[in-house]
Amino acid sequence: MTVPTAAVPTASPAAVLRSEWAKFRTTRATGYVLAGAFVIALCYAYLFGTANGRAYVGSSPGEQASFDPLETAFRSLALAQLLVSAVGVLAVTSEYAAGTMRTSVTVVPRRGRLLVGKAAVVTMIMLLCGPLITLGSFLISQTMLAAQGAPSASLTNPGVPGAIMGGGLYLTLIGLYGVAMGFLLRRTAGAVALGSFLLLLPASAPLFPEWLAEWAVRYWPSSAGMGMFSPAPSSGSLPPHMGFVLLATTVLALLTGASAVFRSRDV
Is residue 1 part of a domain? Predict the structure, then answer.
């Protein structure tokens, strides 16, 4: 006579969410890196605002007439995004480093549910923190422009509120991109290094042939996504909604691939 094997209880989605939130807030590294994203964004907003304000004062009348303060408003996000991506990576790889991932998949045998739980926690945190980072970058950069005697923008300027929310959504997607990289590579150093390289690849566009440089600036997901926080996108870039679709589709594809790898690979 065969003795039936007791089924392994599966944690409910709400229980997984509570567990992943507890892991996130008790892992010091994720909190430190998220705080670092705020610091980097605000410090570089100060530096960019100061430098561009001084450049305006020392420029010719023609250059002053074409000066756009909004070009300074969100430049610091290009650096802050690297730490936001690292937050998503650490939400995953900290468990591999501590050796607790095997326990997690034992408690939550549905690995897709575990991945979704981690992604949901990062999403909720970045939907709150992302707009705050973007707002802080805008306010500090514009304050420093005004302090140098250069034109500055205010929150009531056309397109600014939408750009701030778009920047927050962009950073949320970058956090999810980090989650996907963490599941794909499982090692913090490798996931952060490769993730950062891919995010910053368009910055190397001047080294490419002209046709490839134009393609990278226009269609590379991170570059296209940056149009989400550009109040006045340039003529060579995709419209903000198309940039969002391209970046979101890329992140979804990476998460789908991460889920497939996570399901098929030993922890």
Answer: no
Ranges assigned E (strand) in 109-232: none
Domain hosting residue 177, numbered range: 13-264
d(CA 90, CA 106): 20
Residue corresponding to tokens 């992943």: 20
Q: Encoding tokens for residue 236?
A: 């060579």
- Per residue in 84-107, pLDDT (tens digit) is 999 999 999 999 999 999 999 999
Q: Is 173 within a domain?
A: yes
Number of domains, the chain: 1
Question: Which amino acid appears at position 250 of this protein?
Answer: T
CA distance 179 to 115: 9
248 within some domain: yes
Burial code (b: 16+ CB inside 10 Å, e: under 16) for 118-140 equals: bbbbbbebbeebbbebbbbbbbb
CA-to-CA distance for 26 and 90, rounded, in angstroms?
12
Average pLDDT of the residues of the chain: 91
